[in-house]
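Progress narrative, Year 2. Work on Stress-induced protein KIN2-like from Flemingia macrophylla advanced from sequence curation to structure prediction during this period.
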Amino acid sequence: MDPQKMSYQAGQAQGQVQGQAEEKTNNLMDMASNAAHSAKETVQEAGQQVMATAQGAADAVKNATGMNKNN
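Result:
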């Protein structure tokens, strides 16, 4: 096999490997981005639940002590 043909084939193989590596990297970046977005939404929802629970507890204390001015 002549050296030119071998060099050409090696270049083609390198290009294919590089393309596959870039595709896998992009897929991993997308997966990481999706996971981060999902985690952010979960934390926001948990924060809203904590705030609602705290507000309910505060209202219960106000009602129990007669300090609720809304009634």
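The CA atoms of residues 11 and 31 lie 30 Å apart. The helical segments are 3-65.
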